């Protein structure tokens, strides 16, 4: 299977990138010569990890018929000091909120995504130390 993305320069430091499901704008921050009117490429990589794993976990929540009021993924990532700067350590936090959380099954859903299903997570493991944390917020 092949994915195709087209990214067109809009002038200055801005680009428009189209993937099979939609279009997004990429731009550099003002301190890097852009206008700050688009998403940042490295941060998009973190969104890709969260989206990939989040889709896995959401699917498993549905399959397991788990009761979850809210589900948030927070990611912090450290860049190397030298160029080319890349993420060398990434912390992914899964936050589940609800009155009747099945912690064991939710942790299993996270583990399945992290260890088996999420291809973006696997790509990240090739260049970064991945720290995975799960939090249960009972309401």
Write the layout of secondary structure elements.
Blueprint: E1 6-11, E2 14-19, E3 22-26, H1 41-63, E4 70-79, E5 87-98, H2 103-117, H3 119-125, E6 129-138
Helix pairs in contact: 1-2, 1-3
Pfam families: OsmC
Organism: Sinomicrobium oceani
InterPro entries: KH_dom-like_a/b, OsmC/Ohr_fam, OsmC/Ohrsf
Rg of Cα set? 17 Å
Give the rounded overall mean pLDDT: 97
Structural class: alpha+beta
Give the name of the CATH superfamily of the largest domain.
K homology (KH) domain
Top-tier CATH class of the largest domain: Alpha Beta
CATH architecture level-2 label of the largest domain: 2-Layer Sandwich
Percent range of helical residues:
25-40%
Largest sheet: 3 strands, antiparallel
In the predicted model, the low-confidence regions spanning at least 5 consecutive residues are none
CATH fold label of the largest domain: GMP Synthetase, Chain A, domain 3
In percent terms, what proportion of residues is strand?
35-45%
Order of helices and strands: EEEHEEHHE
Q: How many DSSP E strands?
A: 6
Overall geometric form: elongated
Please tell me the total number of domains: 2
Cα distance spanning the termini: 43 Å
The largest sheet has its strands arranged as: 1-2-3
Pfam families: OsmC
Organism: Sinomicrobium oceani
Protein name: Putative redox protein
InterPro entries: KH_dom-like_a/b (IPR015946), OsmC/Ohr_fam (IPR003718), OsmC/Ohrsf (IPR036102)
């Amino acid at each position: 299977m092949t994915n195709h993305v087209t990214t067109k320069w809009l002038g200055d430091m801005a680009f428009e990138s189209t993937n099979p499901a939609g279009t997004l704008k990429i731009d550099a921050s003002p301190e890097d010569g852009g206008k700050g009117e688009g998403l940042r490429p490295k941060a998009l990589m973190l969104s890709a990890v969260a989206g990939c794993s989040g889709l896995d976990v959401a699917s498993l929540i549905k399959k397991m018929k788990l009761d979850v009021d809210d589900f948030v993924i927070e990611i912090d990532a450290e860049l190397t000091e030298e160029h080319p700067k890349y993420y060398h350590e990434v912390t992914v936090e899964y936050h589940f909120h609800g009155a009747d959380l099945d912690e064991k099954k939710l942790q299993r859903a996270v583990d399945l995504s992290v260890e088996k299903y999420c291809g973006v997570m696997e790509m990240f493991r090739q260049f970064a130390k991945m720290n995975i944390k799960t939090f249960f917020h009972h309401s």
